[in-house]
Amino acid sequence: EISYGDGSNSITSSSNLQFDGNNMTLASGKYIYFNDADASIHAGADSRLDIKGESITFASGSTEVMRVNGGGLGIGTSAPAEKLSVVGGNILLGTNAKYIQFVNNGGTQFDALGYDGNNDLVLNTPSDIIFKRNGTQNVRIKSNDDFLVDTDNLYVDVSENSVGINTDTPKATLDIKQSGNDWEDGILLQHHNTDTGWNFHAE
Does the pTM of the predicted model rise above 0.70? Predict the structure, then answer.
């Protein structure tokens, strides 16, 4: 039984809120207002939607499942620190999900991280792919497919089929630039017992 404005416990067909015995319909442009600062909507014995101030909480029994709070969505946490915060458990993309998409500075949407259906993890970008450790670039795969480690410690020039060590402009198939003029700065071919070997270096 639903108590309506006149206390008649009935909702007429002319009301903004209509009930046909099975479904309840709210007229377009209307809303449900809760007088209490804290309100709950229950669906059965276990599912609950709580509205408290600026927070909307979804709960199963006494366990909070998800919360929208201060512009953030929290799953497994009541205090989301970012637009989406997930604490505990895993994030699962279903079998039909392909990519996580991003929008670049030009407003173009592109597939960034995904699964190609062949057990391959795909990292895709219209520009360079950069790997960082503690904020410092370590590895970069350039948009022209060149590969470099720490800027020029190792540089693979795909278009020229050449490799540079300590140089990002290799002048031969293998170009090694000495970092100094000591014997340790050249090429060392070392014996398996590590005590003897051959060294090649420029004078």
Answer: no
